[in-house]
Write a structure and sequence with these properties.
- Helix content is 45%, strand content 15%.
- By secondary structure, the protein is α/β, with parallel strands linked by helices.
- The chain is globular and about 60 Å long.
- Helix 1 (7-14) packs across helix 3, helix 2 (18-26) packs across helix 3 and helix 9 (220-232) crosses helix 10.
- The protein starts with 6 loop residues before the first helix and ends with a helix.
- It is built from 13 helices and twelve strands.
Length: 337
């Protein structure tokens, strides 16, 4: 039996995203004519079955975000993801609504209220919420989360944690702490594993105290301040910190400034997500960049396409800035062959 060609295969062959391939196949805007024609030519040459594209079934979509996420700290990331979903909805004449959700909420009651034809769920969700979602007859896609039986799209969190930690190692740091929150969240757990793998590859073993997990509460910034206090009170305080996201990294930088600790000379700091505030910080924050809008678009395409691929990983990249690289290091990197 001939292999079924998937949109992922076409994307790999063309060197573009899955969302770009789907837009080309459906004649949607957002691509140059050259890119569109190249994608269509490769799809036809590979024998893609165009009848597998879902059309006309989804008219209303609901975007769910967990109530656990502190709005002030979560929105810089998830609002851009939601805009990606909104872009795709607008291009397909689909109405989108937004709804916070928690374990105390009834999924069936929310569905009855909003009357959606499909759901995009972002961030951590409790097992009982996921169990309710499994019982719905609606298409569901998860963003920044993995769970069995659901199509999911995530940044490559493991690789992000790995390259962030490797970058700190390359700056000569040897006491690299992790500042995070609950590893119940798939993304955070993957970032920790990437961090640990980089340390292992470098032959470094650190005491468990260098990995701080603060409780996942709405007052997360105060919890992060307390976590930083624990790290800085260690007999040998860290000389670098990899924070689970940019908000945590910015809290770490602020706490260092309050204590008169120089960043990056005494403590180098790296975050994750590349929210807008990362570039505005003083010094600017080194971070792992995620194409947040593309995350939303790809989640939408998972709903629209009858594809066997159900676990998409989007590439990430390190953006080195002043929070981890001193002026002399930056000069050395520029002069390196």
């Amino acid at each position: 039996m001939a292999k079924k060609i998937r949109i992922k295969d076409i994307a790999t062959a063309c060197g573009v995203s899955i969302a770009a391939v789907s837009r080309a196949l459906k004649g949607q805007p957002g691509l140059s004519d050259e890119t569109r024609q190249r994608i269509l030519s490769i799809a036809q040459a590979e024998g893609y079955d165009f009848s597998r594209l879902r059309t006309g079934r989804i008219k209303r979509l609901m975007f769910l975000l967990h109530r656990e996420h502190n709005i002030a700290s979560a929105l810089p990331f998830y609002s851009t993801v939601m805009l990606g979903v909104a872009d795709a909805c607008r291009e397909n004449d689909i109405a989108m609504s937004f709804q916070p959700i928690g374990p105390q909420d009834s999924v069936s009651e929310l569905i009855q209220l909003h009357q959606p034809d499909a759901l995009v769920c972002a961030g951590y969700l409790e097992p009982e919420v996921l169990a309710e979602l499994r019982q719905t007859a609606l298409p569901v896609a998860l963003v920044d989360l993995w769970a069995a039986d659901f199509p999911c799209v995530n940044p490559d969190n493991f690789h992000g944690g790995f390259i962030a930690t490797r970058h700190l190692l390359e700056q000569g740091r040897t006491r690299i702490a992790f500042l995070g929150t609950s590893q119940r969240h798939y993304s955070i757990r993957q970032r920790v594993e990437g961090y640990q793998q980089a340390l292992f590859d470098a032959g470094l073993t650190l005491a468990p105290e260098y990995c701080v997990e603060v409780p996942p509460i709405k007052e997360i910034e105060q919890a992060l301040v307390e976590g930083m206090s624990r790290l800085l009170a260690l007999p040998q305080p860290p000389d670098a910190i990899f924070a689970y996201n940019d908000v945590a990294a910015l809290v770490a930088m602020r706490e260092c400034a309050r204590r008169g600790i120089r960043v990056p000379e005494e403590v180098a700091i790296v975050g994750f997500d590349d929210i807008d505030a990362a570039a505005w910080a003083h010094p600017p924050l080194t971070t792992v960049a995620v194409d947040k809008r593309e995350l939303g678009r790809d989640a939408f395409q998972l709903l629209m396409n009858d594809e066997s691929e159900r676990n998409l990983l989007l590439p990430v990249r390190l953006v080195a800035r002043g929070s981890s690289v001193t002026d002399s290091d930056a000069l050395r990197l520029r002069l390196a062959p």
